[in-house]
């Protein structure tokens, strides 16, 4: 089994942020939101860089779209960035952390393989 805990970061203007999930952990990116700003109405593209590929996640707008929802899971290092000069963008979600007892996973996996074998044997009979 595994547990989940809140995860969140602030990506400041002009400062891309590298995120490296801990060993055997996953980060679920759920939302991005604009921080406070007293000026500016421009669109704010959000980027993620994975395996040297930079991809647009979406575009925020202070007036119309101040936050976006995602359903993205990362197991390896990634980099978050934006080009908004008037403030920070906040990303949040949760991280999945495996329990210390790895043997529990192994026994579940073995039971699954045993069940598959039993079903295959029944179908052959």
Automatic annotation (TrEMBL):
Location of the Nucleoplasmin-like domain: 6-96
Keywords: Chromatin regulator, Hydrolase, Nucleus, Repressor, Transcription, Transcription regulation
GO cellular component, one term: nucleolus
Main location: nucleus
Compartment(s): Nucleus, Nucleolus
Keyword Glycoprotein: no
GO molecular function: hydrolase activity
Top-level taxonomic group: Eukaryota
GO BP terms, alphabetized: chromatin organization
Family named by the database record: Belongs to the histone deacetylase HD2 family.
Protein's name in the database: Nucleoplasmin-like domain-containing protein
């Amino acid at each position: 089994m595994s547990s989940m805990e809140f995860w969140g970061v602030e990506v400041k203007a002009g400062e891309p942020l590298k995120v490296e999930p801990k060993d055997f952990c996953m980060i679920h990116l759920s939302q991005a939101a604009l921080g406070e700003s007293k000026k500016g109405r421009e669109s704010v593209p959000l980027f993620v860089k994975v395996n040297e590929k930079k991809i647009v996640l979406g575009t925020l707008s202070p007036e119309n779209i101040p936050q976006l929802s995602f359903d993205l899971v990362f197991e390896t290092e990634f980099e978050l960035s934006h080009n908004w000069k008037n403030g920070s963008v906040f990303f949040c979600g949760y991280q999945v952390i495996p329990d210390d007892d790895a043997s529990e996973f192994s026994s579940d996996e073995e039971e699954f393989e045993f069940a598959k074998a039993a079903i295959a044997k029944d179908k052959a009979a």
